[in-house]
């Protein structure tokens, strides 16, 4: 028999924890994934180490009014109506393509943070090519992730690999180590995939363990907001790193070149065309608003180094400079990422490159 004192303790414990437990379960099973977030990137991005293939919850379509990563919950926030759709493997595409002609791998720029589904680089390219090419996006991802999918029979190797990364990031060389906890080569994976696919268990498990409701409450109590650096020249323009964006440029040049040489070497061994598509930092494009006395030359120096290594690079900074001279806005003022207009410009440049290839 349970002692009266223990019964009273359990009763008080249940009374105290029941609302928390109910709120916790409600977040995972009732509320939409974006209920406690200011943008869909955090809403759909896995935060747990549950085995999966893509970085986002699969087979999901969501829309919301987002704000930028630099200015959310501030007076400089710009509301944007955004739609996201993920495919069966958890990548941001309308549907999975197992045998792509063109595969685009990269970071949050390629994934389309701050952009609606039809504004992403992949969507723009597919529209420009009229559906004549099978174009697929894996982002955020590394070359090792692509290799793993090919080796496990999920995807055939592409004819052209486009690797894109923003100037401030340094890609990993080919190492054979995955960027996510993949679990494709275990005997139990197919069973787990069927279970997850039928029940959505992987997404529910992830939502149960990320505690966004608590983090949201803490953020609102502490009045947390975007931590963008305000330009002293234009107070509406926010930056991620400001003058720190040019730090350790020489070391980054060396590391980026080393990584891309390993990418090119692998692609050559597999008869895959390789194109590097660097994205300029917002600070580089709007250097006079940071302010810098002159435009940082990192991308031009990198372009020269890569040409010496036989790596084809599409440097869009000159195009950005021209467009900015005409008054075009290329980045969201409250975000570190490009806007839909810039994505369209870059897609047009990539299309010109594709026209020179027989894919």
From TrEMBL:
<protein>
    <submittedName>
        <fullName>SGNH hydrolase-like domain-containing protein</fullName>
    </submittedName>
</protein>
<comment type="pathway">
    <text>Glycan biosynthesis; alginate biosynthesis.</text>
</comment>
<dbReference type="GO" id="GO:0042121">
    <property type="term" value="P:alginic acid biosynthetic process"/>
</dbReference>
<dbReference type="Pfam" id="PF16822">
    <property type="entry name" value="ALGX"/>
</dbReference>
<keyword id="KW-0016">Alginate biosynthesis</keyword>
<dbReference type="GO" id="GO:0016740">
    <property type="term" value="F:transferase activity"/>
</dbReference>
<dbReference type="GO" id="GO:0016787">
    <property type="term" value="F:hydrolase activity"/>
</dbReference>
<keyword id="KW-0574">Periplasm</keyword>
<keyword id="KW-0808">Transferase</keyword>
<dbReference type="InterPro" id="IPR031811">
    <property type="entry name" value="ALGX/ALGJ_SGNH-like"/>
</dbReference>
<feature type="domain" description="AlgX/AlgJ SGNH hydrolase-like">
    <location>
        <begin position="238"/>
        <end position="357"/>
    </location>
</feature>
<keyword id="KW-0732">Signal</keyword>
<dbReference type="GO" id="GO:0042597">
    <property type="term" value="C:periplasmic space"/>
</dbReference>
<keyword id="KW-0378">Hydrolase</keyword>
């Amino acid at each position: 028999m349970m002692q009266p004192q223990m019964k009273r303790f359990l009763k008080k414990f249940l009374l105290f924890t029941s609302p928390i437990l109910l709120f916790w379960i409600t977040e995972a099973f009732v509320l939409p994934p974006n209920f406690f977030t200011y943008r869909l990137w955090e809403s759909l991005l896995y935060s747990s180490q549950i085995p999966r293939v893509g970085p986002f919850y699969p087979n999901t379509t969501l829309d919301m009014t987002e704000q930028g990563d630099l200015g959310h919950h501030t007076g400089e926030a710009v509301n944007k109506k955004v739609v996201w759709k993920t495919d069966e493997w958890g990548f941001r595409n309308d549907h999975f393509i197992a045998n792509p002609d063109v595969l685009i791998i990269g970071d949050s720029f390629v994934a389309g943070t701050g952009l609606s589904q039809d504004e992403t680089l992949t969507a723009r390219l597919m529209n420009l090519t009229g559906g004549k090419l099978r174009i697929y996006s894996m982002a955020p991802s590394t070359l090792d992730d692509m290799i793993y999918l090919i080796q496990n029979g999920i995807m055939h190797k592409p004819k052209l690999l486009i690797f894109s990364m923003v100037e401030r990031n340094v890609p990993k060389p080919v190492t054979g180590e995955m960027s996510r906890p993949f679990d494709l080569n275990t005997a139990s994976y197919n069973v787990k995939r069927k279970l997850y696919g039928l029940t959505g268990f992987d997404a529910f498990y992830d939502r149960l363990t990320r505690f966004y409701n608590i983090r949201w409450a803490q953020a609102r109590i502490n009045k947390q907001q975007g931590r963008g650096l305000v330009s002293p020249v234009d107070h509406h323009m926010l930056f991620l790193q400001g003058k720190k964006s040019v730090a350790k440029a020489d070391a980054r040049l060396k590391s980026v070149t080393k990584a891309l040489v390993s990418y090119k070497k692998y692609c050559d061994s597999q008869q895959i065309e390789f194109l590097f598509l660097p994205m300029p930092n917002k600070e580089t494009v709007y250097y006079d608003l940071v302010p810098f006395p002159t435009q940082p030359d990192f991308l031009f120096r990198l372009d020269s180094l890569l040409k010496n290594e036989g790596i084809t690079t599409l440097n869009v900074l000159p195009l950005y400079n021209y467009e900015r001279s005409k008054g075009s806005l290329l980045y969201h003022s409250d975000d570190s990422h490009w806007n839909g207009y810039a994505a369209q410009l870059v897609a047009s440049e990539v299309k010109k490159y594709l026209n020179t290839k027989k894919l």
